[in-house]
Design brief:
The structure is a homodimer. Chain A contains eleven helices and eleven strands. Chain A has about 350 residues and is of the alpha/beta class. The first copy, chain A, has an eleven-stranded mixed beta sheet, sandwiched between helices. In chain A, strand 5 and strand 6 form a beta hairpin. In chain A, helix 1 crosses helix 9 and helix 2 packs across helix 4. The longest helix of chain A is centred in the last third of the chain and has 26 residues. Chain A is globular and about 55 Å long. Chains A and B meet through helix 7 and helix 8 of A and helix 7 and helix 8 of B.
Chain lengths: ~350, ~350
């Protein structure tokens, strides 16, 4: 089986050639990248669909997606909707990817909001954080759905038979947290998931749970705090060591180890994040992605297709909805309000 | 001038003797600690008020504060309300300190919610994060008040003449963020503060702003994510280095530098956080505080008294309220709902 992955060549900080290099790294052994980018772009033999218009980071996502149907981002997303590709990868604006996906790929039946699932490189093994930023505001029933999505992700992609789920809050006790966290806690407790209670953000890199569920605002703040703190700690250590001869020698000796650590903790290691809850497989990669990160994102997309993440998610969510699950209540009204 | 600081000897993870040691370190040169703790406690010559009952971490804060008026925590807080001390420091439950302070010290006129202000050890210098967890839910007008409190803190304690204020959100653009962040952004923009726009959590340890304002849920998640990531990065580096002879030698050489870095980034360095917006000076220290951290917390409390943080905050808030400031609208209704 060969998986065709639509790759948006525009939107990355390092330019389209870096994206092409990443696509080349991922090509072969079951993956066929299709590059969506400007006519002048040399795709080095990879399939090429000409789409030169770019969506900029500072554009309103919804307006840009509507105004630029011929942009590389929208064309690549539509390739999944139209069946020309089985997955799409972009390093462009998360908001634009979300808007284009909602408009063209559309939500799975019963899905209130798509959620962004990222893999945290925790000490005890990978841990899925969802929602990492698709929705700035959320309601308790959204968090319950994110938990089901994250649980399925952990099963299919991380190979965890019965994933443990925790809710991100500001204390481990069930009565600690915002109104949203308290209500989500109750829904999770009453669900069929293996819910293990709250967790705190200081434990995120330890990996107390296979899946950590939160709203997109909190998830995005937590994720970026981790990224910033890891980088600042390593950078500050280097500065600290430069102040003495002993430190400089030590710094030289630890360089390979520090680099391995940086690579291991690097949020780019997994190359991208799934946008879950849609009728097709959508992967969003960091704007700063290197060719290696782009290749990893394309492989992650292909892996999702091979494991039929979309199909299994549809099954899972319909079986949940069929039960007398608290998530079902009010979902019609919620759906009506969810168009971005 | 000598500042009398009521010190709660119970509630710390390391036991009351460690708190006494911290109080001894801080005693003298203008600081007179008064220890509130069990009769059997040896306070090594420091003033001692017998109060043996403890409030446990798993108790409901409001219930515990009401049920245990003779506890060391409540007695120490009441010492400030009654004028026996000018400030109070506790390593006990944040929730109980908040509840006891609201009940006994009470809010300054016009204050909707007290906020926790912590100093982040950012690369460009100290930066105040407020609210770091006093309120799990907040409204835009609360964030505006937190910004004024944080700004005054930066002026009085950090010595910044005209502090720059930023709002923590999930994008630098004003239109990015939750409904709460969007509305708070508008209030901050219309205020008399030196508002410099949004900031993201990945920049918190860089120190882009003198004051970073957010709601207590987000602030607590961000703070704990930073703490966890710093510790995990240093711990992971040590593990990584142990895997080779070269790494082990390098690890030995960098040890002093790494320790200096850990101390500099250590959230305990400043020893505690102010609970701002009250009629008295309240400092909350980490439960895990060492004697050094306890001493720093007591010094921070004394510094706040010397700079009359409470008096100046009252002036500032009343001058803000006197202007046609958006914060004034709806504050009466908000106050009615704010009793914890």
């Amino acid at each position: 089986m060969t998986v065709r992955v639509a790759v948006d060549a525009l939107g990355g900080d390092r330019g389209p050639d870096e994206i092409v290099e990443g696509a080349l790294l991922a090509a072969g052994t079951g993956i066929e990248p299709v590059v969506y980018g400007p006519a002048r772009l040399d795709t080095r033999g990879l399939a090429h669909v000409e789409a030169g218009e770019a969506i900029e980071m500072d554009e309103s996502p919804v307006d840009a997606v509507r105004a630029k149907p011929g942009s590389s981002l929208v064309r690549a997303v539509r390739a999944v909707a139209g069946g020309e590709a089985q997955a799409v990868v972009s390093t462009g604006s998360t908001g634009a990817m979300l808007a284009a996906s909602l408009l063209h790929v559309r939500r799975l039946p019963g899905v209130l909001r798509p959620g962004i699932a990222v893999v945290l490189p925790a000490r005890r093994g990978p841990s899925v954080l969802i929602d990492a930023g698709a929705n700035a505001d959320a309601r308790p029933e959204h968090l319950l759905q994110f938990a089901h999505m994250g649980s399925l992700f952990a099963q299919e992609i991380l190979g965890v038979a019965e994933p443990g789920v925790r809710l991100l809050s500001i204390g481990e006790e069930p009565e600690k947290g915002s109104q949203l966290a308290l209500e989500a806690h109750e829904l999770l407790r009453a669900s069929t998931l293996r819910f293990e209670g709250n967790t705190e953000s200081k434990r995120l890199l330890e990996g107390d749970a296979d899946v950590v569920v939160t709203d997109g605002f909190t998830g995005n703040v937590a994720l970026k705090a981790l990224e910033g703190a890891i980088l600042t700690t390593l950078l500050s250590l280097r500065e600290e060591l430069e102040s003495s001869a002993r430190g400089r020698l030590g710094g030289l000796l630890i360089r390979p180890g520090a680099r391995r650590l940086r690579d291991r903790l690097d949020p780019e290691a997994h190359g991208g994040a799934y946008l879950l809850g849609l009728r097709g497989l959508v992967v969003i990669a960091h704007g700063s992605s290197s060719r290696v990160a782009v290749a990893n994102a394309i492989r992650l997309a292909a892996l999702g297709v091979e494991h039929d993440v979309v199909g299994r998610l549809e099954e899972r969510l319909s079986s949940v909805a069929a039960r007398p699950d608290p998530a079902a209540s009010g979902s019609a009204a919620a759906q009506a309000r969810t168009e971005h």
